[in-house]
Each structure stands twice: as C-alpha cells, then as structure tokens.
Design a protein that fits this description.
By secondary structure, this protein is mainly α. It is about 80% helix and about 0% strand.
Length: about 100
C-alpha cells in the first residue's frame, strides 16, 4: 500500500510539472520536449511497461506540431514525458511489490 501511495505522489508531481508550459513555444521547444518524451518512453519500453496513453499523447504532440501549433505540441510532449516517467516508476515499484504478496 505504501508503494502505491508513493507511485501516485510521483505521478502527480510529474503531471503537475508537465502542465507548467510557457506560452509562445517554438519548434525548437517542441523538438526538445519531444526528445525528452521519447527518451522516457524508451526507458519505459526497456522495462516492458509502456502505457497506451503515453503513445496517444506523443501522437497528439506530433499532430499539433505538424499543424504549427507548437504550444499544444510542447504541452502534449511534456504530458507524454510525465506519463512515461510515471510508467517507469510503476514498473520499478511493481518489480518489488510482488515480494510482499508472496505467502511465506
């Protein structure tokens, strides 16, 4: 139970940080945010814990960037990064949590 609370707290902080995007984002801002999100998603993939909502946020970011809406693209990329980082935290916690469920 304690691990679950820590996961929720970490996910909440990641999502709050993702929402703090400055206005008037540029293509360079988008590329940096997308690179960070893709790196976090790669880490989640290495742990075999990719979330579908992360993929959706990445797709939305790319679509917004293609339309020239870099504010939305950066916000979506940061959201995707936060989700990917939360999935990494979840994977690491679940890797240890099973030990408490095993009857000894």
């Amino acid at each position: 139970m304690r691990l679950h609370k820590r996961f929720l707290l970490a996910a909440g902080f990641c999502l709050m940080a993702a929402g703090a995007a400055p206005a008037a984002s540029s293509e360079a801002d988008f590329k940096a945010a997308l690179a960070a999100a893709e790196a976090a998603e790669k880490d989640a993939g290495a742990l075999k814990n990719r979330w579908t909502v992360t993929e959706q946020a990445l797709a939305a970011a790319r679509t917004a960037a293609a339309a020239g809406d870099f504010d939305t693209a950066v916000a979506q990329a940061r959201q995707a990064e936060a989700l990917a980082r939360a999935s990494v935290v979840q994977a690491k916690e679940q890797a240890e949590a099973w030990r408490t469920a095993v009857i000894r």
